[in-house]
UniProtKB/TrEMBL annotation:
Protein name per UniProt: Putative cytidylate kinase
Source taxon at top rank: Bacteria
Record's keyword terms, sorted: ATP-binding, Cytoplasm, Kinase, Nucleotide-binding, Transferase
InterPro entries the record matches: Cyt_kin_arch, P-loop_NTPase
GO molecular function, one term: kinase activity
One matching Pfam family: Cytidylate_kin2
Gene Ontology BP term (one): nucleobase-containing compound metabolic process
Length: 195
């Protein structure tokens, strides 16, 4: 198998959209290994003693923080194997991927994140504080990626599939993905059982 017909699924999304949970589901369903670049950023934030939001803002001025992740992603183009990538920018750096973006309404995102702060290793005083931080993080990421790469991570035209997860059941999201993934497999000349 050549790198031209590898199946690579890049999943990005707004904070609170369910991106990581969805990536895990896709990995389990396809049997492809999951790589989560957000863990690299969370580890860097912990090492620096700052929140992920604060590290995002630092990265606006310190491009080397993003370049650590970028070089890793670019290197995947020469590596064998099908993959699921949970990453803000893998869709931009990894070739021939199925590009999936999850969106979510801000109020729904805040409710989700506020209930699940342990996973993000962030602490919010209350819902208002969570709303401010999530909005700040979204804006920081959009600005940072426009500045670094000249791309708008919020522009739906960059993606093969965009799903607003605000009021959809997990099963409905999976059905939407399955249809698009089956078409992607056919385009890549591959057959995966169950799709």
């Amino acid at each position: 198998m050549t790198t031209e017909n590898l199946l690579r699924i890049t999943i990005t999304g707004d904070p609170g959209s369910g991106k990581t949970t969805f990536a895990r589901t896709v990995s389990e369903k396809t049997g492809f290994p999951l790589i989560t670049t957000g863990n690299i950023f969370r580890q860097l934030a912990a090492e620096k003693g700052v929140s992920v939001t604060e590290l995002n803002e630092m990265a606006e001025k310190q491009a080397e923080l993003d370049h650590l992740v970028d070089h890793y992603l670019v290197g995947l183009n020469d590596q064998p194997g099908d993959l699921v990538l949970d990453s803000r920018m893998a869709w931009h750096f990894v070739k021939n991927t199925l590009k999936v973006r999850l969106t979510v309404d801000l109020d729904v995102a805040v409710q989700r994140i506020f209930k699940d702060t342990a996973e993000l290793r962030e602490t919010f005083r209350d819902l208002d504080h969570a709303m401010e931080e999530v909005d700040r993080r979204r804006k920081s990421e959009i600005l940072r990626y426009k500045t670094l790469y000249g791309v708008d991570i919020g522009d739906e035209r960059n993606f093969d599939l965009v799903i607003n997860t605000s009021h959809k059941a997990k099963e409905d999201i999976t059905v939407e993905f399955d249809k698009t993934f089956a078409a992607y497999c056919a385009k890549m000349g591959r057959t995966i059982t169950g799709f």
